[in-house]
Amino acid sequence: MADQARTQQNTSKSPASEFPARGVPIITGINHIGLWSLYIKEVRRFLKVQTQTIWAPAVTTLLFLVIFTVALGRSGREVLGVPFATFVAPGLIVMGMMQNAFANSSFSLLAGKIQGTIIDLLMPPLSEGELMGGIVAAAVTRAIFVGGAVALAMALWPGVSLAAAHPWAIVWFGLMGAVMLALLGLMTSIWAEKFDHNAAISNFIVAPLSLLSGTFYVIDNLAPAFQMISRLNPFFYVISGFRFGFLGQSDIGDTNWAVIQSAIGLGVFNVVLAIMTYALLKSGWKLKD
């Protein structure tokens, strides 16, 4: 009788009781599987067209080096005590990294909104931080691939030396530049409603700030007013700090401490950008409306 009662009690349980109550999270902490899946999805997306996303930017950046070294680098011209080609190469490398980090992250959500597949990113059990982390990490990965391809191409160019004087500066400023543009690209992807909006930010903000940040010159050659404007440009600190990693000198300041201060400042700036991006994703602005 006791066994029969126990059997009836077990069979009387509803199948729904085996699941947690509605609203109770099943995944606690970081969803590592979901985060990794999003990251791999984004990486595979740009690797499928790597000729366009990795090798084409490398060729375009190399053309900048060829044109400027031929036009300005003759007769033993030197900048910061090194040949002009060696001076300009680090700036071109990190400029290519930043521009492609922006291109990658600015496409993710915007393509989903235009194609109607944004639900594929919003429905999975990913928090706003995990969504931001996966997209930004993939953009940084593309930036690293592009930087490696550009550096390889430039290392083969006659007269270019990429010997590292301060490896920590190469890693830090390259990473900070890629993260900064990846976050800016993600914010653009949230705001934009069509590809024209994305192109406007790229053409009228990212490209001018990149080209007018000391990539091809030192700001000491500018008038004081334009030097002050250049120092307000965060791209200047990324490019000059990255160049410092190769040459051991830059136009940020006369001491290494000035470069370290810039490194700290870029880290703080990226934290602020990350908080702003997270707040936008959390609000669902132009994503869930």
From TrEMBL:
Highest taxon listed in the record's lineage: Bacteria
Presence of the UniProt keyword Ribonucleoprotein in the record: no
This protein's UniProt keywords: Cell membrane, Membrane, Transmembrane, Transmembrane helix, Transport
Keyword Repeat applies: no
Transmembrane segments: 54-72, 79-98, 131-157, 169-192, 204-223, 235-252, 258-281
Localization (cell): Cell inner membrane; Membrane
PROSITE patterns in the record: ABC_TM2
Pfam name, any one: ABC2_membrane
Record's bilayer topology term: Multi-pass membrane protein
Location of the ABC transmembrane type-2 domain: 48-284
A molecular function (GO) term: ABC-type transporter activity
InterPro entries linked: ABC-2_transport_permease, ABC2_TM, ABC2_TM_bact-type, ABC_2_transport
Cellular component, GO annotation: ATP-binding cassette (ABC) transporter complex
Family, as annotated: Belongs to the ABC-2 integral membrane protein family.
UniProt-listed PANTHER family: INNER MEMBRANE TRANSPORT PERMEASE YADH-RELATED, TRANSPORT PERMEASE PROTEIN
Protein name: Transport permease protein
Organism this protein belongs to: Pontixanthobacter rizhaonensis
